Amino acid sequence: MSNQTRIETRNLNLRFGSAVVLKNLNMSIKSNFVTAIMGPSGCGKSTLIRTFNRLNDLIPECHIEGEVILNGMNIFDKKVDVVELRKRVGMVFQKPNPFPKSIYDNVAYGPKMHGMAHGKKLDTIVEKSLKDAALWAEVKDRLRDSALSLSGGQQQRLCIARTLSVQPEVILLDEPCSALDPAATAKIESLMVQLKKNYTVIVVTHNMQQAARVSDYTAFLYLGELMEYGEAEQVFKNPSNKLTEDFITGRFG
Amino acid sequence: MDERFIMSEKRLLDSGLNDLADLLDDMCKLATDTVSASIQAYLEGGDVFIQVRQWSDTLFNLHTQVGDKAIELIARYQPVATDLRLIKASIEISYDLSRFGRYAYDISTILKKFNGTRMRVEYGRDVIAEMGERTMSMIKSSIKAYRTKNIQLAEKVGEDDKEIDEIYLNHLKYSAENPPQSMEQLIADILTVRHLERIADHAVDLSSSVIYMITGKPISGWR
Predict the structure, then answer these.
(1) Which residues of chain B neighbour A212 with C-beta distances below 8 Å?
(2) If I label B93, which of A9, A48, A83, A240 is the partner at 20 to 30 A Cα–Cα?
C-alpha cells in the first residue's frame, strides 16, 4: 500500500445559490485505500464526491471556493480538461445505468471515445475491465447481449467495468449498493476492496455497516462540515466526536 | 443539533442492552454473596458448600446467557462504538463475575475436603481474613465502578491488587518457612490464599473492562 495523498481538499466551500452545502472542508484522501464518506441525508456527501470530478459544474448556481488537488493539480484550474479529469476520476452511481447497448459496447465505449484502443487491443481492455470488475466469468459467452438483460448487481459491476476501462486513478461510488440485494451487495463490497490495489476508491454510503466493512478510512460529514475523519477501525470502535458516535450508533440520522 | 436528526424513539438495540445490564446486575449481587459466603465459612466455619456450588453454577449459567445475548445483539444490530464496547465489556465482566463464583466454590471445596465443613481454620487465619476483606472490597469497588462508570474507582482496584499480591507472596514465603504441623492445614491455607489472589486479579480485569467500555482504550500491564 502506498501512503501518498491522491486527493486533497483545501478550504473547500460549495453552495448552490444561497444554500451552503460544503463548509471549509480540508481532507486528504490516500491512494490505494477505500475511503468511505458517511453522514445523514443532505449532509453534502454526494456533493463532495461529485466535486472530485467536477460533476457539480453541470448544476447552475453552483459556486465553489477553495481547491481540490488531484496528484498535485488543482482540478479547478482553467487549464484542466474536464473530460480528461472525468477519465481520471471515474464515477459509479446509485442505480446501475448501463447504456442500452451490448455488454461489450458498454465497456468499450470509453476507450473508443478517448481514442485509446480499437480491434484486439480494445478486446483486451474489455476483457481486463470485466475481469477486474469480477463480471467476466458471468458474461464472457454473451458479450453481445444487451446490458439491460443483466441483473441489477451485474449491471452495477458492468458500470464499474465501464469506469475501469479508461484506466482511472480514482473511482467514486455514490451509494453503489442501495438498489441491490444482499448477495449483489456483498459482491460489490468485495470488489471495492479488490480494486484498492490498483485504484483509489471513494464510496459514499448511507449504510454505516457497509462503511465499517469496506473502508480503511472513514469520514463523517454533518451539515456540510467534516466532523470526523480517520482510520475506520478507530472511527467505529472509538469515535472522537460525539456527533459521529450518535450517528453511527443510530441515535440520530 | 438540527432537529431533523434527533431520534425521539428508543433504539431497538437499547432493549437488548438493558437485558444485558439486568443479567449483569443479577450476577454482581450473586457473585458478591458467593465470595462473601465462602470466605466467611472459611474463617468462621459453616456448611456453605452446597449453597456456594449452586450459586457458582448459576453464575456460570448467567455468564452463558450474557454471551448468547451479546451474540444475538451483534448479529441483529451490528453495534459499533460505545454500544460495541459495552457488549464486549459485558462478556468479559460476566466472565470475571463467573470466575468469582468458581473460586468461591473452590474455597468451599477446600474447606469441605480438608477441614470438614464446620471447623474453623486457625493456621494463616489472620492473613486470609485480611486478604478476604481486601478482596471483597475490590469486588465491590469494581462492581461499583461498572455501575457508576467511574474510571478513578476502576483504576484504584488496580492499585489495590498490588497490595494483595504483596500479602500473598509474603504469606507463601512465611508458610514455607513456618509450616503448620498439619499438612492438610498448609494445603488448605495455600490454596485459599491463591484463590483469593486470583479473585483479586479478576476484580482488576473487571475494572479494566470498565475502563475499556468508557474510554475505548485497552488496558495492558495492570497485573
Answers:
(1) 78, 80
(2) A240
Count of domains for chain B: 1
Residue B221 lies in a domain: no
**Which residues, numbered 64 to 83 in chain B, qualify as contacts with chain A under a Cβ-Cβ cut-off of 8 Å?**
78-83
Whether the ipTM is more than 0.85: the answer is: no
Asked if A209 lies within 8 A of B78 by C-beta distance, the reply is yes
Identity of the residue in A238, A239, A250 whose CB atom sits nearest the CB atom of B11:
A250
Which residues on chain A place their C-beta less than 8 Å from a C-beta of chain B? 40, 208-209, 212, 223, 236-239, 243-245, 248-253
Say if B154 falls within a structural domain.
Answer: yes
Task: Give the lowest-confidence range in A34-38, B154-158, B187-191.
Answer: B187-191
In 3D space, the residue among B208, B207, B206 whose CA is nearest the CA of residue B220 turns out to be B208
Q: Is the pTM of this model over 0.80?
A: yes
User: What residue has cell string 479488490?
Assistant: A194
CB under 8 Å to B131, separation ≥6 — which residues? Answer: B164, B167, B168, B171, B193, B196, B197, B200
**DSSP assignment letter at A109:** H
Query: Which range marks the domain in which residue B104 is found?
Result: 3-215
pLDDT of residue B7 exceeding 80, the answer is no
Answer whether residue B58 is part of any domain. Answer: yes
Asked if A253's CB is within 8 angstroms of B5's CB, the reply is: yes
Whether B220 is covered by a domain: the verdict is: no
Taking an 8 Å cut-off on Cβ atoms, the answer to whether B84 and A212 are in contact is no
Query: Are residues A12 and A51 in contact, defined by beta-carbon separation less than 8 angstroms?
Result: yes
